[in-house]
Please model this.
Amino acid sequence: MFIQSDTAKGKILSSTTSYTGHIFKVTSNQVQTPDGLTVQRDLIEHAPAVALLAITDDDQVLVNREYRIGINAEAYALPAGLINAGETPLQAAKRELEEETGYLAQSLTPLCAVRSSEGMTDEVVHLFLASVDRDKHVAKHFDQDEFVTSKFVPLNEVLEAVKNGRIASAQSVSAISYYMAFVR
Model:
């Protein structure tokens, strides 16, 4: 079978850090690949994260609107955030949903984990399905440098927004697609 759980790893021969920031650092690495090549590769080492498809019993999906520097505009996406040191992905998912939206997860189910671009970053985002009740919410607790607007949107509108590119974040598209393909 071609797709296996165990794959050969490369050997890092040298690594130099060129930038260290709040959630990622950039390194330049000389690597010996599993097939014997010696190559130079830059890597963005990124903190792990979570993203949640939070949905009500009547198929209303919690969608966030937040400014994102990568597009220099507000983006529509599912609730998401970084995993804090010492936190499990499940704990982070519960915390992020509450902090960003004020809604409490009635249940949390792991879906899968995704990587946005293995060719340049080690970032992994753990995706969860959250069952939420619109009547069960608390105050939001944004990080000091964030402001998020959240709204419940019918699932069919969310699917249309993915189809036409209004929702384009990799983790959002992945969570919604996984849900529709394997859970729904």
